[in-house]
Write a structure and sequence with these properties.
By secondary structure, the chain is of the alpha/beta class. Helix content is about 40%, strand content about 15%. α5 (about 110-120) packs parallel to α6, α5 (about 110-120) crosses α10 and α13 packs across α14. The relative contact order is 0.15.
Length: about 425
């Protein structure tokens, strides 16, 4: 059997190297495990979900229905319908003071597809992409799938889980093609201040061969007084090297509609659109009409849901920090907490099993208390686990109580059972 073949269920299966370099998304796997347990009749408190628990706004759904009734169900331009491109341009102008012409806009089947195509368009074998850790689970594997090498840069909690200029400068080589900045970030909720972005920009200005991919999908699920800053606006001299990605999935509870977009240098956007023309041709016409309505229509939904998320965040942070073995920082945006469970590692469960790592701890919570979380190692953050607070306050409160009970049942060393 050649190295390009493997055995699956007794059958020979041919797979490309790029497929064998990557693994399924841990967050997707966790969600599937929760579904399996629920199908067995178990009541699982699911804190893994990475999508809003709200329904898509009514006016957005109505726009999709109107598009269907009007027969807007055909192929569209590869880079999106004019109404959506205008909506994207308007949002970026209003939010960041940025101006983009049509040749600098691409629209895809979710921000994930847009990011993947950007990497496909620019990476050759051995090219490097700097990925600050903790990171969204898909970044390293998307780099590997496109023949690149992810350069993981640890960004500790003491530094706000954020890339510093010193760490960035040390990671850049002549093979560096991209730096990924996810702000606000998944899984930490940390966001860069304008001053921090400016400091990173000063490093990048000295390395003109490096582009920056800014993933801003959580930019409006934001708890600051001012809008979340964007690198392209903070340092205009980097405008031709920044590829800003975003979408409607998180802000407008439209994860299933699959619309994301990217704006950046015209040559890069042209390459992405060429790839999309040979893959999916274009995003869903109906979803595009809905996305245009989301971006240009009433924004009360966004304001209302952010208030709910903020209340959930504050309550969950308090409950977690009340557990002696656990701690977490307060996220700037998004709907995740990255919880430090380092003190539980090395302790023993009631049945005498030693907690060896964060994955063991996450499994212990699921098996003993039916609380589903995602272990931090999946995000490049060993010793942590991720909670999503995109669920009801009742579920969050009950889950945190169960987590506290599970932690209280741990012992620092095995003890002899009482006679």
């Amino acid at each position: 059997m050649s190295t390009a073949e493997r055995v699956n269920n007794g059958e020979r299966v041919n797979t490309a190297q790029r497929v064998r370099r990557i693994k399924p998304s841990p967050s997707t796997a966790a969600a599937q495990r929760v579904r399996e347990l629920k199908s067995l009749g178990l009541t699982i408190l699911d804190l893994t979900v990475g999508e809003p628990d709200f329904d898509t706004p009514d006016h957005v759904k109505a726009a999709a229905i109107r598009a269907i009734e009007a027969g807007e169900t055909k192929y569209t331009p590869v880079n999106g319908i004019p109404a959506l491109r205008a909506a994207i341009t308007g949002k970026l102008r209003e939010r960041h003071g940025l101006e983009f012409t049509d040749e600098r806009i691409t629209v895809g089947g979710g921000a994930k597809q847009v990011i993947f195509l950007a990497l496909m368009a620019t990476l050759d074998e051995g090219d490097e992409v700097i990925v600050p850790a903790p990171y969204w689970v898909s970044y390293p594997d998307m780099v590997r799938a496109n023949d690149g090498t992810p350069i993981i840069v640890d960004c500790p909690e003491a530094e706000g889980f954020k890339l510093t200029p010193e760490r960035l400068a040390a990671a850049i080589t002549e093979r560096t093609r991209w730096v990924v900045l996810n702000t606000p970030g998944n899984p930490t909720g940390s966001a860069y201040t304008p001053g921090e972005l400016h400091a990173l920009a000063q490093v990048l200005l000295g390395h003109p061969h490096v582009r920056v991919l800014t993933d801003e999908i959580y930019d409006e699920i934001w708890y600051g007084d001012e809008d979340a800053p964007s690198l392209a606006a903070v340092e205009p001299r980097l405008a031709d090297r920044v590829f800003l990605t975003n979408g409607v999935s998180k802000t407008y509870a439209m994860t299933g509609w699959r619309i994301g977009y990217g704006v950046g240098p015209a040559d890069l956007v042209t390459a992405i659109n060429t790839l999309q023309s040979q893959t999916s041709s274009c995003p869903s016409s109906v979803s595009q009409a809905a996305a245009a309505a989301a971006l240009t229509g009433p924004q009360a939904f966004v304001q209302d849901t952010v208030r709910v998320y903020r209340a959930r965040r504050d309550e969950t942070v308090k409950l977690i920090n009340d557990v002696p073995q656990l701690s977490c920082t307060v996220p700037d945006g998004g709907f995740y907490l990255l919880v430090n469970c380092g003190e539980t590692i090395g302790q023993f469960t009631p049945d005498g099993t030693r907690i060896e790592n964060d994955e063991d701890f996450a499994r212990y919570l699921l098996d003993s208390r039916q609380v589903a979380v995602i272990h931090g190692t999946a995000y490049g953050a060993p010793g942590y686990f991720r909670i999503s607070f995109a669920t009801s306050t009742d579920v969050l409160t009950e889950a945190c109580e169960r987590i506290a009970v599970a932690c209280a049942a741990l012992t620092p060393a095995q003890t002899e059972p009482s006679a």
